[in-house]
């Protein structure tokens, strides 16, 4: 006999576990458990992330780099962060060096393009935009020989069209664009544009960040250098050429930007050599090179650039012996002479009569700023400027033999110029842009931000693919928050159901006590 056989008939009838209400509550409970488990399993299962891709080639004066960017394919309203997935350094010189054989410029890009074909999944090739942007090397070539510059761009175009990506064009950027896109890149990567953050990626200091100012951009190339920053004292009226106005994510930015053509570090070296060879010497004792350094240089090679060609001294010999003296203070003097600080028709200037509002905020210094300062072990800007100068002075005074011995792996061409380049950077920042001993510490020498290279290419692609909307997108979807609410709701339903079930025997209708 089962235990229920011994119960009174009324008690048997009133068994609470058999009442319709209990059955309904139990069914709801079971459904809630199944739904909860399903939601948790679905939400946490590994889904392979799908990406979209974009490719930008940075055709610089000294070399070309290819960058592949990617971003989550399914994100609405461009809330997915764009990141650098891969980069490739093109072998050989910059495309402007192929003026006499333009087809070679196109040819030089092929190896990196083939690498890109391997990196981007094949099914995405046709939707992947490919851009090439050339900078100051091509600006100089256009000034010198515009048809040669066009031929180089045509050759490059023909080569790039031969690949399976969606080719969007090759062009030479204006200096202003180069500066502005560099500024967009670093502020985008630093999330300082008030852009929506990818869900689930909210740092604890998010609320602070929204109110933060943007970071200025200092870019040093081989042929030009750019400075771009937002200043409260600049609305574009004093010098409209230096003004770029943007509306990004619903915020207006009035950016000051200037690109100094011929003041990239390679052309600045030519300016310094030109300054020192005006009386056509046979031997030049150069304070910006290490003692013991000695090389024969062609006058025609040094003066073969629109930055200096008009200043070639009359009656110069074919070549001169370039000797190093390794004197930082003297080198600074030479470099100061390539900045014209005597005339300014604006309220204030940086140099060469170029307007510049007062420096404001923090700055990120990248490209050759980083390469040089990193080599010199001087990227730490908490070091007093005086210490940096002392270190540079010590480095410049090292003998050439000693320097070569200490850096056997560094190409001699680069190695010889680091004393000049370091001195140039410090002089450009202080005498050129007016950074003081105090404001020097507001500069950060950077190579990458969150894994992506600092430079103009990302900003250029974000702009051309309309990935930065002018207005803030409508509230982004919040799958994480939706998921959390759903789970909470179901846990609540379950708790209520369990509570009801637990209390059921105590309800008057369902009590197991015989009713009197
Ligand atoms: O590892 C490196 C790579 C580049 N550079 C230098 O950085 C500058 C980069 O200039 P780019 O070709 O980008 O010139 P742009 O066209 O922007 O003037 C050139 O002076 C290069 O010699 C360097 O010092 N170390």
TrEMBL record:
From the UniProt record, give one GO term of the biological process aspect. nucleoside diphosphate catabolic process
Organism superkingdom: Eukaryota
Q: Where are the transmembrane segments?
A: 20-42, 414-435, 483-503
What name does UniProt use for this protein? Ectonucleoside triphosphate diphosphohydrolase 1
Name what cofactor the protein needs: Mg(2+); Ca(2+)
* Keywords (A to Z) from UniProt: ATP-binding, Calcium, Disulfide bond, Glycoprotein, Hydrolase, Magnesium, Membrane, Nucleotide-binding, Transmembrane, Transmembrane helix
Biological source species? Tetraodon nigroviridis
The cellular component terms of Gene Ontology attached to this UniProt record, alphabetical and capped at eight, are: caveola
According to its UniProt record, which protein family does this protein belong to? Belongs to the GDA1/CD39 NTPase family.
* UniProt membrane topology term: Multi-pass membrane protein
Q: How does it assemble?
A: Homodimer; disulfide-linked.
Residues that coordinate or bind ATP: 222-226
The kind of enzyme this is, by top-level EC class, is hydrolase
Q: What is its main location?
A: membrane
Q: Name one Pfam family in it.
A: GDA1_CD39
Which InterPro entries does the UniProt entry name for this protein? GDA1_CD39_NTPase
Q: What is its EC number?
A: 3.6.1.5
**Molecular function GO terms recorded:** apyrase activity; ATP binding; GDP phosphatase activity; ribonucleoside triphosphate phosphatase activity; UDP phosphatase activity
Keyword Nucleotide-binding on this protein?
yes
Q: Which reaction(s) does the protein catalyse, per the Swiss-Prot or TrEMBL entry?
A: CTP + H2O = CDP + phosphate + H(+); ATP + 2 H2O = AMP + 2 phosphate + 2 H(+); GTP + 2 H2O = GMP + 2 phosphate + 2 H(+); CTP + 2 H2O = CMP + 2 phosphate + 2 H(+)
State if Transmembrane helix is listed as a keyword: yes
Catalytic residues in the record: 178
Q: Where is it localised?
A: Membrane, Caveola; Membrane
This molecule's function is given as: Catalyzes the hydrolysis of both di- and triphosphate nucleotides (NDPs and NTPs) and hydrolyze NTPs to nucleotide monophosphates (NMPs) in two distinct successive phosphate-releasing steps, with NDPs as intermediates and participates in the regulation of extracellular levels of nucleotides. By hydrolyzing proinflammatory ATP and platelet-activating ADP to AMP, it blocks platelet aggregation and supports blood flow.
């Amino acid at each position: 006999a089962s235990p229920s056989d011994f119960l009174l008939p009324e008690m048997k009838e009133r068994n609470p576990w058999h009442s319709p209400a209990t059955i309904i509550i139990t069914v709801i409970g079971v459904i809630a458990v199944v739904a909860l488990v399903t939601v948790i399993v679905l939400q946490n299962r590994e889904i392979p992330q799908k990406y979209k891709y974009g490719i930008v080639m940075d055709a610089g004066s000294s070399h070309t780099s290819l960058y592949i960017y990617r971003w989550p394919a399914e994100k609405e309203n461009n809330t997915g962060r764009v990141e650098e997935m891969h980069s490739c350094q093109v072998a050989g010189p910059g495309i402007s060096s192929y003026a006499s054989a333009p087809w070679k410029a196109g040819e030089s890009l092929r190896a990196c393009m083939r690498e890109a074909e391997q990196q981007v999944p094949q099914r995405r090739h046709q939707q992947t935009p490919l851009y090439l942007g050339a900078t100051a090397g091509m600006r100089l070539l256009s000034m010198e020989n515009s048809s040669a510059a066009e031929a180089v761009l045509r050759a490059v175009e023909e080569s790039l069209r031969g690949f399976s990506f969606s080719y969007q064009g090759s062009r030479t950027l204006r200096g202003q664009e180069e500066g502005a896109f560099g500024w967009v890149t670093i502020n985008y990567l630093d999330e300082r544009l008030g852009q929506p953050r990818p869900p689930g990626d909210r740092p604890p200091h998010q609320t602070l960040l929204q109110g933060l100012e943007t970071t200025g951009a200092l870019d040093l190339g081989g042929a030009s250098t750019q400075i771009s920053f937002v200043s409260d004292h600049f609305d574009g009226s004093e010098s409209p050429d230096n003004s770029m106005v943007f509306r990004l994510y619903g915020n207006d930015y009035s950016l000051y930007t200037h690109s100094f053509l011929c003041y990239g570090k390679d052309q600045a070296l030519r300016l310094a050599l030109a300054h020192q060879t005006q009386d056509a010497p046979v031997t030049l004792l150069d304070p910006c090179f290490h003692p013991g350094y000695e090389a024969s240089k062609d006058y025609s090679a040094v003066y073969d650039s629109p930055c200096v060609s008009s200043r070639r001294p009359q009656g110069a010999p074919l070549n001169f012996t370039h000797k190093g003296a390794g004197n930082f203070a003297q080198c600074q003097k030479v470099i100061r002479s390539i900045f014209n600080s005597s005339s300014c028709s604006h309220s204030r200037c940086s140099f060469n009569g170029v307007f510049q509002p007062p420096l404001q905020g923090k700055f990120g210094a990248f490209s050759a700023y980083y390469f040089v300062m990193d080599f010199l072990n001087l990227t730490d800007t908490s070091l007093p400027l005086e210490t940096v100068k002392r270190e540079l002075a010590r480095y410049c005074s090292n003998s050439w033999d000693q320097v070569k011995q200490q850096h056997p792996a560094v190409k001699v061409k680069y190695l010889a110029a680091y004393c000049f380049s370091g001195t140039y950077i410090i002089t450009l920042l202080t005498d050129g842009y007016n950074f003081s001993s105090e404001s020097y510490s507001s500069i950060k020498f950077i190579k990458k931000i969150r894994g992506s290279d600092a430079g103009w290419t990302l900003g250029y692609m974000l702009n051309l693919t309309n990935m930065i909307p002018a207005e803030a997108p409508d509230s982004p979807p919040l799958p994480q928050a939706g998921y959390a609410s759903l789970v909470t709701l179901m846990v609540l339903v379950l708790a209520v159901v369990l509570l009801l079930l637990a209390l059921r025997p105590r309800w008057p209708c369902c009590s197991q006590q015989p009713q009197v």
